[in-house]
């Protein structure tokens, strides 16, 4: 990466999915590599079940903590409907890493709307560079659904030119000590799942 150019990542999900922990892993990762980092977490809507978005910017010098509409290099979406909700923040040619998980928003729970059935097709139409991964089932296979966020970190790592040892250091510095092993397993499970996809950069 050109160290002069600020890179923008938008993390979107639902409260309780671990999006804020993911942003802290990224913050530690980029700080360890000598970048200036700004992270802006949206508060007030981050209660369990509510929409939450985090802005992560890094580069040689970062002046604003917020990613502007149409300027995100990567959208990391923990839930499919949230991916659609925030995909307009991607720049032209940007990419989206999207969890297949579907969490009903309040209008669906109340029965006033239905959860859209064509989101995969819509994602690929809006962002041809979309990578869709079943992070929840990967986490279930590992025996801990709380590591969905680290599975998605592994998927994201496939598309950032950063050695996995740097990711390991950031994860170890961020997650609770007792969960380091399961989080590293989750990271590499997500990483290998993305490597197996036909559009992986290998």
Structural overview:
By secondary structure, this protein is of the alpha/beta class. The protein has one domain (7-195): Pyruvate-ferredoxin Oxidoreductase, domain 3 (3-Layer(aba) Sandwich). The protein contains 8 helices and 6 strands, in the order βαβββαβααβαααα. It has helices at 19-32, 80-86, 106-109, 119-126, 135-142, 148-157, 164-174, 180-195, and strands at residues 7-14, 36-41, 51-59, 72-77, 90-99, 130-133. Strands 2-3-1-4-5-6 form a 6-stranded mixed sheet, with helices on both faces. Helix 5 (135-142) packs across helix 6. The longest helix is centred in the C-terminal third of the chain and has 16 residues, at 180-195. The radius of gyration is 16 Å and the shape is globular. The protein starts with 6 loop residues before the first strand and ends in a 7-residue tail after the last helix. 40% of the residues are buried. The mean pLDDT is 87.
Compact overview of the structure:
With 202 residues, this protein is α/β, with parallel strands linked by helices. It has helices at 19-32, 80-86, 106-109, 119-126, 135-142, 148-157, 164-174, 180-195; strands at residues 7-14, 36-41, 51-59, 72-77, 90-99, 130-133.
Name the descriptors.
202 residues, alpha/beta, Pyruvate-ferredoxin Oxidoreductase, domain 3, six-stranded mixed beta sheet, 8 helices, 6 strands
